[in-house]
Every structure is written in structure tokens, then in C-alpha cells.
Amino acid sequence: MTSSPVFAFEPHASPVPASERDAALLDPGFGQVFTDHMAVIRYSRERGWHEPAVRARAPLTMDPASAVLHYAQEIFEGLKAYRLADGGVALFRADANARRFRGSARRLAMPELPEELFLESCRALVRTDADWIPSGPDGALYLRPFAIASEVFLGVKPSADYLYMVIASSVGAYWKKGAAPAISIWVSQTYTRAAGGGTGEAKCGGNYAASLAAQAEAMRQGCEQVVFLDAVERRWVEELGGMNIFFVFDDGSLLTPPLTGTILPGITRDSLIALARGRGLVVREEPYAFDQWRSDAASGRLREVFACGTAAVVTPVGTVKSGGGDFEIGGGGPGQTTQALRAALVDLQRGAAPDPHGWLERLT
Length: 364
Ligand code: PLP
Ligand code: COI
Description:
CATH superfamily of the largest domain: D-amino Acid Aminotransferase, subunit A, domain 2
CATH topology of the largest domain: D-amino Acid Aminotransferase, Chain A, domain 2
Structural class: alpha+beta
Number of strands: 19
Shape: globular
Bound molecules: pyridoxal-5'-phosphate, 2-OXO-4-methylpentanoic acid
Radius of gyration: 21 Å
Strand content: 25-35%
Number of domains: 2
């Protein structure tokens, strides 16, 4: 396939009427409202990636022996298209998602989708369904590219056939409470997420399936998210169920756990490190122990904690709960550094601030 792939376009025969769509966009929540179309590319060993198309979003028909249904050979991405201050539409760092998708494919023994095909599939879908971007301050079009093993075979081996798709969801804030100033998180001492040599740094569905019991435990404790500790010593902070984590200290410096193969290399994490350093802040990528966290919170050395990710953006953490007791961070509300970094990121993503890194790709 050439470097500028052409997607066949088959428009939806009966798209959602504009009045119904606009009503759904008033308060879309997260991951519940879907657009009219989807992008699809097939892969077979003989033909490679072929038949790229944007067509009506519709249910899939699958053979019950399709490999993904049994051995979870599946990877995905999450990125957003934003409505800019001037009315245009842009993707944020989609090239980084395309690269990470290739890395996930390698780890799951799947063929790597060329980055240009990934990018063009996202661009084509956003251009087609741009009217589905909600206009509220948190509104965005959340893109979910994913690939599944579609070979019909029950032997355990990498599939010969795959289906890559992109669906799009009109989203507002990730958190149901919306107005809550900060989330509570539960440090699991029962479950771990990933070990060295495993799939921790890949974005594969299996990681999330394995995290759900821990997330359910967190929810039973009244928390929004689970925090995982490392699988070897059960001591070092890793990440949340669906977000990376940052700590802000009294000297103004920040710390976030390093990328050692067991956590997802978040694109929001990477962006915030660059934005913080650009403001002259010191950011360390270093291991941080849970007992240190507790004592730094008690001494006042630790001032702020926040979670970050495409879905969560930048979310302050107010309360930390665990089997060993609970503690608050900085009085339980959002801190100054957290709010400043969130504003810097959101302004850039919406074209309301300069983009010195060239992170935005304008589509319209
Ligand atoms: N960690 C996990 C486990 C995630 O699911 C996500 C969300 O994608 C992140 C971190 C943050 O990654 P990103 O900033 O690329 O969305
Ligand atoms: C994302 O932020 O894109 C994720 O995949 C995380 C999930 C909590 C929706």
C-alpha cells in the first residue's frame, strides 16, 4: 500500500437525524454516545493490510471460533479530536498513538499497522463525523482504534487474519460526578497489574480484564480508581487502572514512576512532563514507594497528587485509601500545580495556547 492510503467511503444510508444527535451531545458522559461511521481495514497473511474503508457503524458478525474470543489477541488505542477555539477540528499527538499501537502489536504477536494507515483512518473518521464533537468545555470526539485476531482456529498461535477498526464516541468529562473537586483512589495490596516481561506497557484488552477485580475492590471501598503497586516487592507505585500518576512536592518538583516496561507509557504523561519542564519545573521519573507516599503526605512534603490520561485529562487525587488506613492529600482538593498543568494542556489541545511542539494536527 502507498504512503497516502485512500479509504473507500460508503456513507451511512440513514444517519442519526441532526436534532437527535444534538440532544445526545448535550450531556454525553463517556463512551456511551457513538457516531454514525467507523473505519475498517482487514489483514490477511496473503494480502497484508487491505480494503481500507469508512462506512456505517454496524454490529460485527463473527465466527464463534474467532481467535480473539478465546485467547484475547487484541490491542487498542484511545485518542481525542478537539473542536478548536476558531471552530476547526484537530487531532492531538495521533502520531504517538500510532507508534504505541505498533509497539502493542509487536508484544501481542500481531502484524504492525503502518503509522500512515492508523493516522489516515483516524483523520477520515473525524472528518466524516466532525458534527459529533460536543461543544461543552470537556467535549471531544474520543477515538478508539483497535485490532482483533479474526482467524477461525482454536489452536494457540498468532492469528493469520486480523480486523482493525476505529469507532468514535462523543464524550464529556470521564467522571460521573463531574463537579467533584478530586477523586479517591484505592491502593490494592491484593492484586497486581503487570510484571516484568509481561504486557504492562502494551495497550491490550487483557491488561484491563485482569484489572477489573482490583477496580471492583476499589469501587467497593468508595474509590473511583485502583492504584497498582509493583508485582515483585509490592512496594513501588505503578499506575492507576486507566491512568498514570504524578506527585507534586513542597519544593515545586514533580515525580512520576519511570517507564520500566510494566506501566503504560501514557501520551498525556509525556505531554505533561514536557509542559512542566517548559515552565521550569523539575520532573523526576523515579520509583516512589507507597510507605514514602504516606509519610510525605503526613509531613506535608507531598502537596498534590494527580492522575492523567486521554480520558481523565488531569484529575486531582484528594484521598488515598488502603488496607492500612486512609490519608488525604493537600486538604483533599485540587492543588495549584495540578490546575495550572491541566489548564496548559487543555488550552493547547483546544488551540487556545501556542503549540511549540507541533502536537496538534488540524483537520478542518
Ligand atoms: N495507564 C493506563 C493503564 C491507561 O489505560 C491509560 C489510558 O490510556 C493511561 C495510563 C494514560 O495513557 P494516555 O495518556 O496515552 O491516554
Ligand atoms: C484512555 O484514557 O484512553 C483509556 O484508555 C483509559 C480508559 C480509562 C478509558
